[in-house]
From TrEMBL:
Participates in both transcription termination and antitermination. It comes from Flavobacterium caeni. Belongs to the NusA family. Its main location: cytoplasm. This is Transcription termination/antitermination protein NusA. GO terms for cellular component: cytosol. It comes from the Bacteria. The lineage of its organism: Bacteria, Pseudomonadati, Bacteroidota, Flavobacteriia, Flavobacteriales. Residues 285-346 form the NusA-like second KH domain. GO terms for biological process: DNA-templated transcription termination; transcription antitermination. It is found in: Cytoplasm.
């Protein structure tokens, strides 16, 4: 009963750690064998019998009977005198089995056993946790904010598992409070010592792809395929979609009536602007679609160097480049080509045009850079724009834009 009581004491970990009894017994045997090795030098002549149904166990030590004067290995041999105290008719050469009570190992040994058991169970839990989340890499996962730190947000799921959301994996506009539910993808599982660290990401292209699967039934059912996703997290994204069924409009199905389907995804990503385009193997057409909303005049492709010269009318250049250069950058990433914008326009006007940098004595450098971000780097390219449109696409005030236009107009009117 002493062994049984000890086993029941150890078995409290089964309930705490949600570990099944059979696994617990296997861990127990390993722990006890280590204890026997420490005390007796070897566990090879010990039999450990575990009954997982009753939670009981027995430990038996086998020793060979030798003459009293021939005793050499105390763990493996027993003298004839000692053996006959157990059974009077024992003879030299026979094997004796004796039960070892755990309590006989001593209080300190039992405390060490308990500590070793805790360590082994944690190791078992960590191995299972690592395997569990390795299988979830690339999947959307939801967890609750437990603690917000400057460089990382610590999340906890329903099972109490800790998940890490680093600052660089957060969308720039993300703001979390304790208790908030956060969605992201499991991006990686790293072993820190023996403990797995689960990394979540909200900036990965895979997160946007999985949101399409989750929010758009046709994507989930495989009727629409997401062919490629590129993002500047929190700013802009482009998603190429395709369908084998000509009756399905993949872009229309993803966007929904008045943007109803994609609205939830946009909101989840901090109002990230998402362009959904039809995928095609026609490179010219694919690049044209990727540069939307700009209207492309023509394209000259260099397949060997994966470059493309894109010819656009002057008024389309800023649309192709986009705010901060985001549109052309994402179009290049989506198509796999380095895109060079070539302006088309009135030759006389182009020859008469003036680089915006020439006005650096009258226009501040940061203002010139702000126009350059959206592809406007000459005087005439700015004068052709609508003031309200420039206010929307730059970080400039209307007053500043009007002042710049006044300076530029004076150049051509003088």
């Amino acid at each position: 009963m002493e062994n049984l009581a000890l086993i029941e004491s150890f078995s409290e970990f089964k309930d705490d750690k949600l570990i099944d009894r059979v696994t617990l017994m296997a861990i127990l045997e390993d722990v006890f064998r280590n204890a026997l090795k420490k005390k007796f030098g070897s566990d090879e002549n010990f039999d450990i019998i575990i009954n997982p149904d009753k939670g009981d166990m027995e430990i038996w030590r086998r020793r060979v009977i030798v003459a009293d004067e021939d005793l050499d290995l105390e763990n493996e041999e027993i003298t004839l005198t000692e053996a006959r105290k157990i059974e009077p008719d024992f003879e030299i050469g026979e094997e004796v089995s004796e039960e070892v009570k755990l309590i006989d190992l001593g209080r300190r040994a039992i405390l060490a056993l308990r500590q070793n058991l805790i360590s082994k169970i944690h190791e078992h839990d960590n191995t299972n946790l690592y395997k569990q989340f390795k299988d979830l890499i690339g999947d959307i996962y939801t967890a609750e904010v437990h603690h917000v730190r400057p460089r990382v947000v610590i999340l906890v799921d329903d099972e109490g598992n800790e998940i890490v959301l680093p600052k660089e994996k957060q969308i720039p506009s993300d703001f979390f409070r304790k208790g908030d539910n956060v969605r992201g993808i499991i991006e990686n599982v790293e072993l820190k010592g023996n403990k797995p660290q689960i990394i979540m990401s909200r900036t990965s292209e895979k997160f946007l792809e999985k949101l399409f699967e989750q929010e758009i039934p046709e994507v989930f059912d495989g009727l629409i395929m997401v062919k490629n996703v590129v993002r500047i997290p929190g700013e802009k994204a482009k998603v190429a979609v395709d369908s084998y069924d000509d009756r399905i409009d993949p872009v229309g199905a993803c966007v929904g009536m008045k943007g109803s389907r994609i609205h939830g995804i946009v909101r989840e990503l901090g109002n990230e602007n998402i362009d959904v385009i039809n995928y095609t193997t026609n490179t010219n057409l694919y690049i044209t679609r990727a540069l939307s909303p700009a209207k492309v005049s023509s394209i000259k492709i260099d397949e060997e160097n994966k470059r493309a010269e894109v010819f656009l009318k002057l008024e389309e250049v800023s649309k192709a480049i986009g705010r901060g250069g985001h549109n052309i950058k994402l179009a290049g990433l989506l198509t796999g080509y380095e895109l060079d914008v070539i302006r088309e326009g009135n030759i006389a006007e182009e020859e008469d045009d003036v680089e915006l940098t020439e006005f650096s004595d009258e226009i501040e450098e940061w203002v010139i850079e702000e126009f350059a971000k959206i592809g406007l780097d000459t005087a005439r390219s700015i004068l052709k724009q609508d003031v309200e449109d420039l206010v929307r696409r730059t970080d400039l005030e209307e007053e500043t834009i009007l002042d710049v236009m006044r300076i530029l107009k004076e150049e051509f009117n003088s």
